[in-house]
Amino acid sequence: MSGEKTEKPTEKKKREARKEGQIARTPDLGSWGGLLVASMLLPMLVRNIMDTTEKLFVQCTAVISDPDPGKAMKLLVTGLTDGAMTVAPLAFAMMATAIIAAAAQGALRPSSKLLKPDVKRLNPFTGIKKTFGPQALWEAVKVTAKTAVLGTVLYLQLRTMLPGLVTAASMPLPALLKLIADAILALFRTAAAAGLVIAVADYAMSRRRTNKQLKMSKHEVKQEHKQQEGDPLLKGAIRSRQMAMSRQRMMSDLAKADVVLVNPTHVAVALRYDPSKGAPRVVAKGAGAIAARIREVAAEKRIPMVQDVPLARALYKACDLGSEIPPELYSAVARVLAFVMTLKTRGSAAGLHRAPALTN
Length: 360
Prior knowledge:
Layout: E1 5-7, H1 11-19, H2 28-65, H3 69-104, H4 124-132, H5 134-166, H6 173-213, E2 216-217, H7 218-229, H8 232-254, E3 259-262, E4 267-272, E5 281-287, H9 289-300, E6 305-307, H10 309-318, H11 330-346, E7 352-354
Parallel strand pairs: 3-6, 6-7
Antiparallel strand pairs: 1-2, 3-4, 4-5
Helix pairs in contact: 2-3, 2-6, 5-6
Protein backbone atom coordinates (compact mmCIF):
# COMPACT_ATOMS: atom_id res chain seq x y z
CA MET A 1 0.00 0.00 0.00
CA SER A 2 1.21 3.53 -0.83
CA GLY A 3 0.26 4.77 2.68
CA GLU A 4 2.47 2.25 4.50
CA LYS A 5 5.64 3.87 5.83
CA THR A 6 8.34 1.54 4.52
CA GLU A 7 10.89 3.97 3.04
CA LYS A 8 13.90 5.47 4.80
CA PRO A 9 13.57 9.19 5.61
CA THR A 10 15.05 11.57 3.06
CA GLU A 11 17.66 14.19 3.97
CA LYS A 12 14.98 16.89 3.81
CA LYS A 13 12.81 14.95 6.25
CA LYS A 14 15.78 14.50 8.60
CA ARG A 15 16.60 18.24 8.47
CA GLU A 16 13.02 19.14 9.31
CA ALA A 17 13.02 16.65 12.19
CA ARG A 18 16.24 18.16 13.59
CA LYS A 19 14.69 21.64 13.42
CA GLU A 20 11.74 20.34 15.45
CA GLY A 21 14.06 18.72 18.01
CA GLN A 22 13.16 15.18 16.96
CA ILE A 23 16.57 13.54 17.20
CA ALA A 24 18.03 10.46 18.87
CA ARG A 25 19.56 11.28 22.23
CA THR A 26 20.28 9.92 25.69
CA PRO A 27 21.26 12.02 28.74
CA ASP A 28 23.21 9.08 30.19
CA LEU A 29 26.03 9.52 27.68
CA GLY A 30 27.05 12.88 29.14
CA SER A 31 26.44 11.78 32.75
CA TRP A 32 28.54 8.62 32.66
CA GLY A 33 31.17 10.30 30.49
CA GLY A 34 31.44 13.09 33.05
CA LEU A 35 31.81 10.55 35.87
CA LEU A 36 34.59 8.76 33.98
CA VAL A 37 36.43 12.04 33.35
CA ALA A 38 36.01 13.01 37.00
CA SER A 39 37.46 9.69 38.18
CA MET A 40 40.50 10.33 35.97
CA LEU A 41 41.04 13.86 37.26
CA LEU A 42 40.17 13.20 40.91
CA PRO A 43 43.70 12.15 42.04
CA MET A 44 45.17 15.37 40.63
CA LEU A 45 42.32 17.36 42.21
CA VAL A 46 42.91 15.80 45.64
CA ARG A 47 46.66 16.53 45.45
CA ASN A 48 46.00 20.15 44.49
CA ILE A 49 43.45 20.55 47.29
CA MET A 50 45.90 19.14 49.84
CA ASP A 51 48.69 21.45 48.63
CA THR A 52 46.37 24.47 48.66
CA THR A 53 45.03 23.60 52.11
CA GLU A 54 48.54 23.13 53.50
CA LYS A 55 49.65 26.50 52.13
CA LEU A 56 46.48 28.12 53.50
CA PHE A 57 47.12 26.72 57.01
CA VAL A 58 50.67 28.10 56.98
CA GLN A 59 49.37 31.53 56.00
CA CYS A 60 46.61 31.32 58.65
CA THR A 61 49.25 30.67 61.32
CA ALA A 62 51.12 33.80 60.23
CA VAL A 63 47.94 35.89 60.39
CA ILE A 64 47.01 34.51 63.83
CA SER A 65 50.43 35.42 65.19
CA ASP A 66 50.07 38.95 63.78
CA PRO A 67 46.32 39.78 63.67
CA ASP A 68 45.58 42.35 60.98
CA PRO A 69 42.17 42.82 59.25
CA GLY A 70 43.89 43.70 55.96
CA LYS A 71 46.01 40.55 56.00
CA ALA A 72 42.99 38.44 56.99
CA MET A 73 40.93 39.82 54.09
CA LYS A 74 43.79 39.25 51.69
CA LEU A 75 44.12 35.66 52.94
CA LEU A 76 40.38 35.10 52.43
CA VAL A 77 40.53 36.35 48.83
CA THR A 78 43.63 34.26 48.16
CA GLY A 79 42.00 31.16 49.63
CA LEU A 80 38.84 31.56 47.55
CA THR A 81 40.86 32.22 44.37
CA ASP A 82 43.15 29.23 44.93
CA GLY A 83 40.14 27.03 45.69
CA ALA A 84 38.37 28.09 42.49
CA MET A 85 41.52 27.55 40.41
CA THR A 86 41.93 24.09 41.97
CA VAL A 87 38.39 23.00 41.11
CA ALA A 88 38.29 24.76 37.70
CA PRO A 89 40.00 21.98 35.65
CA LEU A 90 37.47 19.40 36.84
CA ALA A 91 34.54 21.74 36.18
CA PHE A 92 35.75 22.66 32.69
CA ALA A 93 36.51 19.02 31.84
CA MET A 94 33.03 17.87 32.87
CA MET A 95 31.42 20.77 30.99
CA ALA A 96 33.46 19.93 27.87
CA THR A 97 32.45 16.26 28.20
CA ALA A 98 28.77 17.23 28.37
CA ILE A 99 29.11 19.48 25.29
CA ILE A 100 30.96 16.79 23.30
CA ALA A 101 28.35 14.17 24.24
CA ALA A 102 25.54 16.50 23.18
CA ALA A 103 27.33 17.39 19.92
CA ALA A 104 27.88 13.71 19.11
CA GLN A 105 24.13 13.20 19.35
CA GLY A 106 23.33 16.32 17.32
CA ALA A 107 21.68 18.00 20.30
CA LEU A 108 23.53 21.33 20.03
CA ARG A 109 21.09 22.72 17.45
CA PRO A 110 18.47 24.75 19.33
CA SER A 111 14.86 24.04 18.35
CA SER A 112 12.62 27.08 18.72
CA LYS A 113 9.56 24.92 18.08
CA LEU A 114 10.02 23.18 21.43
CA LEU A 115 9.76 26.55 23.20
CA LYS A 116 6.42 27.41 21.58
CA PRO A 117 3.27 26.45 23.49
CA ASP A 118 1.57 23.40 22.00
CA VAL A 119 -1.93 22.32 23.01
CA LYS A 120 -1.12 18.75 21.95
CA ARG A 121 1.26 18.45 24.89
CA LEU A 122 -1.69 18.93 27.25
CA ASN A 123 -3.58 16.03 25.72
CA PRO A 124 -4.03 13.40 28.50
CA PHE A 125 -4.31 10.55 26.00
CA THR A 126 -0.85 11.41 24.67
CA GLY A 127 0.51 11.28 28.22
CA ILE A 128 -1.17 7.92 28.87
CA LYS A 129 0.27 6.56 25.63
CA LYS A 130 3.76 7.63 26.68
CA THR A 131 3.26 6.14 30.16
CA PHE A 132 2.06 2.73 29.00
CA GLY A 133 3.43 2.60 25.45
CA PRO A 134 6.56 1.00 23.99
CA GLN A 135 8.69 3.95 25.10
CA ALA A 136 7.71 3.45 28.74
CA LEU A 137 8.40 -0.27 28.43
CA TRP A 138 11.89 0.44 27.10
CA GLU A 139 12.54 2.93 29.92
CA ALA A 140 11.57 0.28 32.47
CA VAL A 141 13.78 -2.31 30.79
CA LYS A 142 16.62 0.23 30.63
CA VAL A 143 16.40 1.06 34.36
CA THR A 144 16.27 -2.63 35.27
CA ALA A 145 19.20 -3.46 33.00
CA LYS A 146 21.19 -0.49 34.26
CA THR A 147 20.65 -1.51 37.88
CA ALA A 148 21.46 -5.16 37.20
CA VAL A 149 24.60 -4.45 35.16
CA LEU A 150 25.97 -1.83 37.54
CA GLY A 151 25.15 -3.99 40.55
CA THR A 152 26.91 -7.00 39.02
CA VAL A 153 29.98 -4.99 37.98
CA LEU A 154 30.34 -3.34 41.39
CA TYR A 155 29.84 -6.65 43.18
CA LEU A 156 32.56 -8.32 41.13
CA GLN A 157 34.89 -5.36 41.65
CA LEU A 158 34.30 -5.33 45.42
CA ARG A 159 34.79 -9.09 45.67
CA THR A 160 38.14 -8.68 43.94
CA MET A 161 39.28 -5.81 46.17
CA LEU A 162 37.98 -6.90 49.60
CA PRO A 163 40.67 -9.57 50.30
CA GLY A 164 43.37 -6.97 49.69
CA LEU A 165 41.66 -4.43 51.96
CA VAL A 166 41.21 -6.98 54.78
CA THR A 167 44.87 -7.98 54.76
CA ALA A 168 45.93 -4.31 54.61
CA ALA A 169 44.96 -3.60 58.23
CA SER A 170 48.62 -3.84 59.33
CA MET A 171 49.78 -1.37 56.67
CA PRO A 172 50.91 2.16 57.60
CA LEU A 173 48.06 4.70 57.56
CA PRO A 174 49.24 6.65 54.45
CA ALA A 175 49.62 3.43 52.44
CA LEU A 176 46.21 2.20 53.69
CA LEU A 177 44.54 5.48 52.73
CA LYS A 178 46.13 5.33 49.29
CA LEU A 179 44.93 1.75 48.84
CA ILE A 180 41.37 2.70 49.83
CA ALA A 181 41.43 5.74 47.53
CA ASP A 182 42.64 3.63 44.62
CA ALA A 183 39.89 1.09 45.32
CA ILE A 184 37.20 3.80 45.34
CA LEU A 185 38.54 5.28 42.09
CA ALA A 186 38.57 1.83 40.52
CA LEU A 187 34.92 1.41 41.53
CA PHE A 188 34.02 4.78 39.99
CA ARG A 189 35.84 3.99 36.74
CA THR A 190 34.30 0.53 36.44
CA ALA A 191 30.83 1.91 37.11
CA ALA A 192 31.37 4.75 34.60
CA ALA A 193 32.62 2.34 31.92
CA ALA A 194 29.62 0.03 32.43
CA GLY A 195 27.30 3.06 32.38
CA LEU A 196 28.81 4.26 29.10
CA VAL A 197 28.16 0.87 27.51
CA ILE A 198 24.52 1.07 28.63
CA ALA A 199 24.31 4.69 27.37
CA VAL A 200 25.59 3.68 23.93
CA ALA A 201 22.99 0.91 23.79
CA ASP A 202 20.31 3.40 24.84
CA TYR A 203 21.42 5.81 22.10
CA ALA A 204 21.28 3.02 19.53
CA MET A 205 17.71 2.18 20.58
CA SER A 206 16.75 5.87 20.55
CA ARG A 207 18.21 6.25 17.05
CA ARG A 208 16.35 3.16 15.84
CA ARG A 209 13.10 4.45 17.32
CA THR A 210 13.57 7.91 15.81
CA ASN A 211 14.35 6.52 12.35
CA LYS A 212 11.23 4.34 12.59
CA GLN A 213 9.14 7.39 13.46
CA LEU A 214 10.61 9.32 10.52
CA LYS A 215 9.95 6.59 7.95
CA MET A 216 7.99 7.73 4.92
CA SER A 217 5.53 6.16 2.55
CA LYS A 218 6.37 5.80 -1.14
CA HIS A 219 3.76 8.45 -1.91
CA GLU A 220 5.43 10.93 0.48
CA VAL A 221 8.83 10.28 -1.12
CA LYS A 222 7.39 10.87 -4.60
CA GLN A 223 5.67 14.07 -3.47
CA GLU A 224 8.91 15.36 -1.94
CA HIS A 225 10.82 14.63 -5.14
CA LYS A 226 8.17 16.51 -7.08
CA GLN A 227 8.49 19.51 -4.76
CA GLN A 228 12.28 19.53 -5.05
CA GLU A 229 12.51 18.89 -8.78
CA GLY A 230 9.25 20.51 -9.82
CA ASP A 231 6.10 19.02 -11.29
CA PRO A 232 6.99 17.51 -14.71
CA LEU A 233 3.75 18.83 -16.22
CA LEU A 234 4.42 22.32 -14.90
CA LYS A 235 8.05 22.18 -16.04
CA GLY A 236 6.91 21.04 -19.49
CA ALA A 237 4.41 23.88 -19.70
CA ILE A 238 7.06 26.42 -18.67
CA ARG A 239 9.54 24.99 -21.18
CA SER A 240 6.92 25.15 -23.95
CA ARG A 241 6.11 28.76 -23.09
CA GLN A 242 9.80 29.66 -23.08
CA MET A 243 10.28 28.03 -26.49
CA ALA A 244 7.23 29.88 -27.85
CA MET A 245 8.58 33.21 -26.58
CA SER A 246 11.99 32.40 -28.07
CA ARG A 247 10.39 31.67 -31.45
CA GLN A 248 8.46 34.94 -31.27
CA ARG A 249 11.67 36.89 -30.63
CA MET A 250 13.37 34.96 -33.43
CA MET A 251 10.58 35.80 -35.88
CA SER A 252 10.80 39.42 -34.79
CA ASP A 253 14.56 39.46 -35.43
CA LEU A 254 13.99 37.79 -38.80
CA ALA A 255 12.86 41.13 -40.23
CA LYS A 256 16.49 42.36 -39.92
CA ALA A 257 17.92 39.43 -41.91
CA ASP A 258 19.76 40.01 -45.21
CA VAL A 259 19.19 36.53 -46.60
CA VAL A 260 17.50 33.23 -45.74
CA LEU A 261 19.23 30.04 -46.82
CA VAL A 262 16.83 27.13 -47.42
CA ASN A 263 17.10 23.40 -48.06
CA PRO A 264 14.62 23.99 -49.85
CA THR A 265 11.77 22.92 -47.50
CA HIS A 266 13.28 21.12 -44.48
CA VAL A 267 15.79 23.68 -43.16
CA ALA A 268 15.95 27.46 -43.09
CA VAL A 269 18.71 29.71 -41.71
CA ALA A 270 18.46 33.51 -41.72
CA LEU A 271 21.67 35.59 -41.70
CA ARG A 272 22.35 39.24 -41.00
CA TYR A 273 25.63 40.90 -41.91
CA ASP A 274 26.79 44.08 -40.18
CA PRO A 275 30.44 44.87 -41.07
CA SER A 276 30.87 46.85 -37.84
CA LYS A 277 30.00 43.78 -35.73
CA GLY A 278 32.21 41.16 -37.41
CA ALA A 279 31.12 38.07 -39.31
CA PRO A 280 27.52 37.40 -40.37
CA ARG A 281 25.26 36.16 -37.56
CA VAL A 282 22.38 33.70 -37.45
CA VAL A 283 19.22 35.60 -36.48
CA ALA A 284 16.80 32.73 -37.10
CA LYS A 285 17.00 28.99 -37.77
CA GLY A 286 14.67 26.05 -37.78
CA ALA A 287 13.62 22.76 -39.31
CA GLY A 288 10.26 21.39 -40.37
CA ALA A 289 7.33 23.58 -39.30
CA ILE A 290 9.62 26.30 -37.96
CA ALA A 291 11.51 26.39 -41.27
CA ALA A 292 8.18 26.74 -43.10
CA ARG A 293 7.22 29.64 -40.81
CA ILE A 294 10.59 31.33 -41.44
CA ARG A 295 9.99 31.08 -45.20
CA GLU A 296 6.49 32.55 -44.78
CA VAL A 297 7.78 35.52 -42.80
CA ALA A 298 10.63 35.99 -45.25
CA ALA A 299 8.14 36.11 -48.11
CA GLU A 300 5.97 38.62 -46.22
CA LYS A 301 8.98 40.84 -45.38
CA ARG A 302 10.39 40.45 -48.93
CA ILE A 303 13.64 38.98 -47.60
CA PRO A 304 15.69 37.17 -50.28
CA MET A 305 15.70 33.36 -49.95
CA VAL A 306 18.53 31.39 -51.54
CA GLN A 307 18.32 27.67 -52.11
CA ASP A 308 21.72 26.17 -51.24
CA VAL A 309 21.26 22.70 -49.77
CA PRO A 310 24.85 21.99 -48.54
CA LEU A 311 25.33 25.48 -47.07
CA ALA A 312 21.91 25.57 -45.38
CA ARG A 313 22.54 22.19 -43.74
CA ALA A 314 26.05 23.16 -42.66
CA LEU A 315 24.88 26.44 -41.10
CA TYR A 316 21.96 24.73 -39.34
CA LYS A 317 24.26 22.13 -37.73
CA ALA A 318 27.27 24.38 -36.97
CA CYS A 319 25.64 27.59 -35.70
CA ASP A 320 23.58 28.44 -32.63
CA LEU A 321 20.96 31.14 -32.69
CA GLY A 322 22.66 34.53 -32.40
CA SER A 323 26.18 33.20 -33.05
CA GLU A 324 28.60 34.13 -35.81
CA ILE A 325 29.16 31.75 -38.69
CA PRO A 326 32.35 29.62 -38.44
CA PRO A 327 35.43 30.71 -40.45
CA GLU A 328 35.29 27.66 -42.72
CA LEU A 329 31.94 28.91 -44.09
CA TYR A 330 33.07 32.53 -44.71
CA SER A 331 33.74 31.97 -48.41
CA ALA A 332 30.42 30.23 -49.16
CA VAL A 333 28.37 32.81 -47.23
CA ALA A 334 30.27 35.71 -48.85
CA ARG A 335 29.41 34.27 -52.27
CA VAL A 336 25.70 34.16 -51.33
CA LEU A 337 25.72 37.69 -49.88
CA ALA A 338 27.41 39.01 -53.03
CA PHE A 339 24.74 37.24 -55.09
CA VAL A 340 21.98 38.88 -53.01
CA MET A 341 23.59 42.33 -53.38
CA THR A 342 23.63 41.80 -57.15
CA LEU A 343 19.92 40.92 -57.08
CA LYS A 344 19.15 44.03 -55.04
CA THR A 345 20.95 46.26 -57.49
CA ARG A 346 18.77 44.75 -60.21
CA GLY A 347 15.65 45.33 -58.04
CA SER A 348 14.62 41.64 -57.96
CA ALA A 349 15.98 40.38 -54.58
CA ALA A 350 12.67 39.22 -53.00
CA GLY A 351 11.50 35.65 -53.47
CA LEU A 352 13.29 32.31 -53.80
CA HIS A 353 16.52 32.03 -55.83
CA ARG A 354 18.93 29.26 -56.58
CA ALA A 355 22.49 29.74 -55.39
CA PRO A 356 24.89 30.77 -58.12
CA ALA A 357 27.03 28.02 -59.51
CA LEU A 358 30.69 27.93 -58.49
CA THR A 359 33.04 29.23 -61.16
CA ASN A 360 36.63 28.11 -61.52
